Amino acid sequence: MPPLAKSLDVMKTREAMQRQWDKRRKPEGRFSLMLAQFKCLWRSNIYIVAPRFIFILLRCCQPLLISRAITFVTRDLPPFENRNEAFRLILMTFVIYTGMALCNAMYERLLARLNTLTRMALIGVIHNRCLTIKDGVFDESAAVTLMSSDSEDVTSFGTLFHELWSQVLELGIGMYMLAEELGWVCIFPLVVVLCVSKAVKSITENLTDRHMAFSMATQMRISTTKAILDSMKNIKMMGLVEKMEAKIQSAREYEIKQYIAFYRLLVAFFVSSVALHLFSPAVTLIIYAIQAQLRGAKSIDVNMAFTSIAIIEIVATPANTLLGILPEAAAVIAAFDRIQTYLLSPDREDKREFLDKRYANGDFDDHRDAALIARDPLDRVAINIDHVTIRPASTADPVLRDISAALKKGSLVVISGVVGTGKTTLAKALLGDLPPDSGVIQTAYGSIAYCSQMAWLTNGTVKEAICGPPGDNSAPDEGWYKRVVHVCDLEEDFDQMPNRDRTVVGSRGITLSGGQKQRVALARAVYARRNLIILDDVLSALDATTERHIVKNLIGPNGLFKELGTTVVLITHATQHLPLGDHIIVLDDKGEIAEQGTWDDLRAEAGYISKVVLKEKAEGEEKARNRAEAGDRIEVPPEEQDSNLQGITRKAGDFSLYGYYFSAIGPARLLLLLGSLTLYAILLGVIPYWLQWMAESGGGDMWFYTGIYFALTLGAFLSVATAVATIFLVIAPHSGNELHARLLRTVMYAPQSYFAKTDTGTTLNRFSSDMMMLDRQLPFALFQVFQTLFRVLSQCILLGVVQPLITTTLPFTILAVYLIQKVYLATSRQLRFLDLEARALVGASFLETLEGVATIRAFGWQQAFIRDNVRKLDLSLRPDYMLMCIQRWLDVVLDLIVPGLAICIIGLAVALKGTTTGGQIGIALNVVLQANQYLLRLVEGWTKLETSLGAISRLRAFERDVQPEDPDQAHKTQPPPAWPARGAVEFSNLSACYNPPALALNGISIAISPGTKVGVVGRTGGGKSSLLLSLLRLVELEGEGTVRVDGLDIRDLPRNAVRARIITVPQDPMLVMTDTVRQNLDVTGTNVLDEEMIRVLERVRLWDVLQTRLASAQAARREAREVDVAMGLDDSDSDSDSESDSIISLLAAGSLNATMKSLPLSQGQQQLFSLARALLMRPTRGRVVLLDEATSNVDGETDALMQTIVRDEFSEHTVITVAHRLDTIMDSDLVLVLDAGKLVEAGPPSELAAREGGAFRALIHGKK
Predict the structure, then answer these.
(1) Backbone angles phi, psi at 614, to 5 degrees
(2) How far is Cα 499 from Cα 820, in angstroms, rounded to an integer?
(3) First-to-last CA distance in the chain?
(4) What is the pTM of this model?
(5) Closest to 224 in 3D by CA, of 1158, 1079, 1168
(6) Tens digit of pLDDT for each residue in 482-531?
(7) Scanning 358, 471, 730, 1107, which has its CA 20 to 30 A from the CA of 756?
């Protein structure tokens, strides 16, 4: 694609808009953002005025041309004057229609530039706000919705503004001309407008609210879809595909209800505008004819009738447009409101103080801990925490109270404590994301390398992920890069990847195993060479061997951090690393520091550290072999790209798409639409001819003529009203719901490999941009094509009847239009496909920014991500802007056909003067007056339909190419209701793979008796998780090997049925944060009693935590309400009573009805919650339990609690546990040791631990 013009600079426009927004008047009014946008683009708005003004003047000359032509045909003139008048008519025709074509082309092009600049400006400020907004204020999908649908709505602001002033001007000129022609009767078009406006006023009362409700329903659906797409692997593992599919489809059905409620008003608007267009000329001419008959005045003649029709068209069209602007304006204002609300949301409050030289000189406050500062002068302190109290969320109770610590530069600080003691909260406070309630945090460094508990990676190659942000164009330091890769133990991982470090990691690193993701994130932090690095539980996903390598080469006393003098804050549950710390901080469950100091000092005291028992560590490590990651990740070869999906944009059109779309509509609905539009076109064709007969009657039988005229107009109105209601209230909702269901079904039943190779933003784009096109653009385009096609046919027939010779030009005109649309359509179709694909770039950029905003801000990478967003927005706008450019080309070419037709009509009238009546020439010129609109609307509508069918093409190709993971599911036998009732599991010569021919599991055979507790261990990539996934059929079984559960071969059973009968606790808890605690606990929808939910929450020690946080949230709400009332911001007693009642009701229902988002849980607490959910599944599922690293983010004490719960609550179940922590499985009945996809050892843990040279013994001692 060619680059955009220099005047369309994304970065400059973004910066200009940000400056205008920053300079806004405060306090902000409702239209502050709209005003800032107008000020930013005022020059572009000024340029539009001149061509639009000239266009209006030329358009108003059309009735004068019609009047003069009719006069010329009906009057006998001397030959010389006749020749001069004929020349003047032809010249006027050429100037008027050619001038209109050129001026309209200039106007539309400048308007397209303005709309593009508007989109640039608003997406820019929304993205800027993503980087500065307070964490947790908005759901991630809010910004995505604002960026996609709302910014799209706002781009029409310029169009509405310029249409507003120009249509008012055109209406004023038209009224003056009509008064000159009809006298006082000219007021009746305005009377019709006033009557219609009264109806419109009643409609508009709820328009904004309805549009807001519809937009919120769309946002809720996209939010739910995103949350589910993010957790698809876990959803499949837990057998929740059908439940989640129903959940998304339920959100879609609610959205459709809001769609219908909103579009009822829009249909009423459209019908009102049609009524204005149809009844204005009818009422005006009928009243004129009646009053002329009663007064005995001059009746309607041909000249007056058709000139008045042309003038009324000039009056009715702008009046119609002005009425149509109202719903569009409401939608634009609502979109502006939502964007402005987002931009005005609370800022991230970074209350950290940055240390400088004056602190080293002793210039500090007396209330500070003087002894602490005297012992550690601030010039040697990296972080000083002084009497700080912190809460994890604004509505939660503090989890850290009055804590103080001084962290020296170059030291390794280890922070430990049980689950829920505030370790991650402290890390966020050190980053500046959580402001302390009291006290102060001082830091010597503004830029911090940060690794979160859940590794966040940008989509790109592994090397790009390590070497910095996507917007950083600097060349990587190869020597430093190689050293970082070595200390993070990634070299052998690269050897096993299909393209080494050029392998694409996928959305959120989905193609990597958990340990690989964590090490790549760690490598990124090390590569950045920051003076301060915060590592939040980064060692939890690593096996013992890899962990020892990283500790020795990176974190240990001889590691890279010590060599660089880097200050390291390590948050960990692993007690064996505590002796490495220069300073240890232990947090207790009261929110206080239980103890802090050096390892030796704390060992001498009677505290937590003195009770820690360290494992013996074996020395002498050697390099690990056979670390193929095929066992725990999904490899995606770069050449594995769907040629069909990639080739869609090159297709030249496919009429079978219409069949696909019409099948979603249904034949009865389609016939109703076509029938009503056919009747509408016939009646519109008859009306002008009837008007000619009425004008030529000389006033005779006036009541008969006027009555039939009104009946024809009423019939046309009713038929088009039926068509509009059918398309928007019947066809669009039904087809949209059906197509969404097809898309959802394809996605939910797609194989796991699809999610590994496809970015979430790309899939989400199908549910947002594509669905918006199917809901809003495609039905309207279909209506426009059918309506205009029938209208053009009726007008061509009418023109042929009144001017038979003009039909000789029709073949040439049709050929010209066909060739033009053929060239245009081929280009526009490809551009529309490119546009659909390119929009996903910006969506993915927003998602990455939102998911990793804490990391981005910590590293200080905001500008780099802004540059990356600018680059992607520029790329995404190129096809869109090119599409608008060729649309302008189409406008001008079709507009230039009209002067040819008009000149032909005038030429024939001149050449055949005496054989053509005034009525005929009046009808012909009135047809031509609207011919350019009809032709343009037909080709544009056809093109919009074809390009909108791009979404249909993508959906059909997606449905065809993404085959379901279990295509024969319907033909497979369902397992017995109680299966598996015993829990016997047998692997017989099992081989499995993600991508042939590389095997993830190779020839595994083992029989597991019912009720056995099994531990699965091995190095990273050994195939541990693959063993579980094979049992759940998430990896493909190869060869003749089998997996039998209670004697049934799982290949003979539907995959979803197998997964829905096994209790699975995945490593990453699957939580929908916008759902309630109840919905997340009872995720299978079995209507579990509240008492049972409370019991399991108490069992995992979360009930008190949730109750406390709920009470705190309600107290915060009450305090905020009291402040609002005290400040006079809210004086509604009824609202206060309502709020109080809701609080009481919520507290009475307990924490179960609160959303997960309002009761924030730490990562370890979320794993406890996931275990509680598993306990509730026992009555509805069988006797097999799978635990996939279910305790990876908890401390040793909580791990012991979870193991006790598993032993007690699942005592009669077969439990298969995958673990990196060997302590977790030491009490198992059976241990399986996997390496490179093979079972190398199996037996009781005590027996394997004593086996000399055994693989399990090597793991225990950390040997490679």
Answers:
(1) -90, 145
(2) 47
(3) 52
(4) 0.66
(5) 1079
(6) 888 888 888 877 777 777 778 777 766 767 777 778 888 888 888 888 88
(7) 471
